[in-house]
Fold this sequence. Notes:
Layout lengths: L1 H5 L3 H4 L18 H14 L1 E12 L5 E5 L10 E11 L2 E7 L6 E5 L3 E10 L15 H7 L8 E9 L3 H7 L6 E3 L5 E9 H10 L4 E5 L1 H17 L2
Antiparallel strand pairs: 1-2, 1-3, 1-6, 3-4, 4-5, 7-9, 7-10, 8-9
Helix pairs in contact: 6-7
Amino acid sequence: IKKLENLTSKHFNSRVNYITSTEDNYPKNDEIFANIAILDEAIRKSVQVSFNYYDYEIDERLNLAFRPRKNSEGMIREYTINPYQMIAADGRYYLICNHDKYDTMANYRVDRIKNMKLLETKRKPLREIKGYERNLDLNKYIDEHIYMFSGESERVAVRLKKYALNEFIEFFNPEKIIFSNQTEEEVTARVKVNRTAMRNWALRYALHAKVISPEDLVEDIKRDIEHAWKNYQ
Length: 233
């Protein structure tokens, strides 16, 4: 950082003294940059990759541990996927990819991948992925996949307190929001968004917004709130 500052003007140096970045307290994965390099080559060559995917767990000493996912037989699970793109979002790198046996997209955190290998087998053509027959529109993908959850997107209507409008626009592209039924205190906003991401967003902003359609999503959120309530009883 100091070397980079030396390349700037004195006006820049005098204005960065009070800017500080926070550090993660998670276990570090020293393979992340190697993963990015392998994925870059795999995407360029249109070939598959394999890897182990790690989760954070609490060990016997109550410390945060970084351990590989296992299959039903207790063996470390190896993923073989078709990679299409990487995205940097919320300070993390995500891999957009597909599993051969499915016709939908999946997302994986690159910093939770280890033992990645470049394979010689060709990846599945993008046109065989549901909803991506023509191309992968990254801007559209990011707009619809807040929190980078994978899965299908759908049209959702939210009844929103107007004082929370700034927070709403932080998550949803303002050019893609359709507003209606405005009152002095509330407005209805319609967006196309990943279903799982919307459930999480709705819980986070439950005091300020209410999902009003589709009805089955409303019922899912009601059950989420009931389960959250039981945790406090």
